[in-house]
Design a protein that fits this description.
alpha+beta; Arc Repressor Mutant, subunit A
């Protein structure tokens, strides 16, 4: 998937910013914090995971998502960090 397809979605950018800020979250927490339904968030997370930006960590029955260590994920995290510094 092309970069513009990944970053053209406002919910995906909000998910990325939230996980960048908090480190890791499960789908229910993300949906609650963004006031969006679980199914929608889950779909966006699947796209981000399939592109290697987010990774799943399972702790028993709890499934947490965080940034992966891939080059794509680090580039996105760097973009968020630079953007947030400029707007602070």
């Amino acid at each position: 998937m092309a970069l513009e397809e990944i970053l053209c979605s406002r919910p995906r950018i909000k998910i990325l910013k939230l996980i960048y800020t908090l480190g890791q979250l499960n789908v229910s927490d993300i949906a609650r914090r963004l006031n969006t339904n679980y199914t929608s968030i889950s779909g966006h997370i699947q796209i981000l995971e399939s592109e290697g930006i987010l990774e799943l960590r399972t702790y028993g029955r709890v499934r947490m998502y965080r940034f992966s260590s891939s080059a794509k994920a680090q580039a996105v995290a760097g973009l968020i960090e630079a953007w947030e510094k400029q707007t602070a």
